[in-house]
């Protein structure tokens, strides 16, 4: 980690506005990474900001070859999978799920409020794609946080402001939720071998060296950063800013994706589809399992 005198900020590479689109059952999400303008950003495959009514959600569906990271901002999301795992992710809480060789699950909002949060997909290297499914779950009060000079850091993975997260990541990843008061400044170190981006949830901020008030970036934009530099400089002026900074070590491997399956070759994708359809090689429970929380109308249609 660089000292204060050695700090050099990365610059803005791209600014991509997240576009709203349909997803799941009656749900709509704002998708940035994984959309047309930013297909992927190694090692990240997708970033969705979801705001889902309790009458909608994400019923039974499979995954293979990557990790899903669900971070709730408001409301409660209930989760259930075909391995018998079931729980709720409340406001400020985290679920880091390794799909590995195969998982089928449902994610549905519950309670009186809409479910608002972020879901990030992190690619796994070829040697990790067929590991057994696993979970890391932290309640809001278990995620480290610190405040200094008008900046609050909620450390989901990695470290910031002298504190670190207990989350272990197969693909080295830093994931930090920052809240900046008006007129504050952040100099956050980033490992030189990682790609990084910001997603602005609320407010606006200037990102990178030499950026001033006129250069501020608004909410719902993804800001990818150039390589090089020891970190990123973020400044606020007359407004506050609420954003996540996500950095990861690229896999530098081919990415072949078919919906919820992400592998390295087309043959591996075909094998994943066959395994799911035949309930084998990681999907043994798929044919006989239906979630209790998923919408009943999807149960009859899921395997068509």
TrEMBL record:
Binds 1 Fe cation per subunit. The keyword NAD does not apply. Residues 27-122 form the Pirin N-terminal domain. SUPFAM superfamilies: RmlC-like cupins. Keywords: Iron, Metal-binding, Nucleus. InterPro entries: Pirin, Pirin_C_dom, Pirin_N_dom, RmlC-like_jellyroll, RmlC_Cupin_sf. One of its GO terms (cellular component) is nucleus. Fe cation binds at residues 61, 63, 105, 107. GO terms for molecular function: metal ion binding; quercetin 2,3-dioxygenase activity. Gene3D superfamilies: Jelly Rolls. Its cofactor is Fe cation. It is found in: Nucleus. Transmembrane segments: none annotated. Residues 175-281 form the Pirin C-terminal domain. Belongs to the pirin family. PANTHER family: PIRIN, PIRIN-RELATED. This is Pirin. It comes from Ectocarpus siliculosus.
């Amino acid at each position: 980690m660089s000292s204060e005198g050695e700090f050099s900020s990365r610059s803005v590479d791209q600014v991509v506005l997240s576009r709203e689109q349909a997803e799941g059952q009656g749900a709509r999400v704002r998708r940035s990474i994984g959309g047309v303008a930013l297909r992927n950003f190694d090692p990240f495959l997708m970033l969705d900001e979801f705001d889902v009514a309790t009458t909608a959600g994400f019923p039974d569906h499979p995954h293979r070859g990557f990790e899903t990271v669900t971070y709730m901002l408001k409301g409660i999301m209930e989760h259930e999978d075909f391995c018998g795992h079931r729980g709720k992710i409340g406001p400020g809480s985290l679920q880091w799920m390794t799909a590995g060789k195969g998982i089928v699950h449902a994610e549905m909002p519950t309670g009186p409020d809409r479910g608002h949060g972020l879901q990030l997909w992190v690619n796994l290297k070829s040697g990790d794609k067929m590991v057994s499914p696993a979970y890391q779950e932290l309640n809001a009060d278990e995620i480290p946080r610190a405040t200094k000079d008008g900046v609050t850091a909620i450390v989901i993975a990695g470290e910031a402001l002298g504190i670190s997260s207990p989350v272990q990541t197969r693909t080295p990843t830093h994931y930090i939720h920052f809240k900046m008061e008006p007129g504050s400044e952040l100099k956050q170190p980033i490992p030189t071998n990682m790609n990084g981006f910001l997603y602005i949830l609320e407010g606006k901020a200037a990102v990178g060296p030499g950026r001033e008030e006129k250069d501020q970036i608004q909410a719902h934009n993804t800001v990818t950063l150039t390589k090089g530099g020891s970190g990123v400089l973020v400044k606020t002026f007359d407004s506050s800013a609420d954003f996540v900074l996500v950095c990861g070590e690229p896999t530098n491997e081919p990415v072949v994706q078919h919906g919820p399956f992400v592998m390295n070759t087309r043959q591996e994708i075909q094998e994943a589809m066959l395994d799911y359809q035949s309930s084998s090689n990681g999907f043994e429970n798929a044919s006989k399992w239906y979630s209790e929380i998923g919408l009943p109308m999807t149960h009859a249609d899921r395997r068509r």
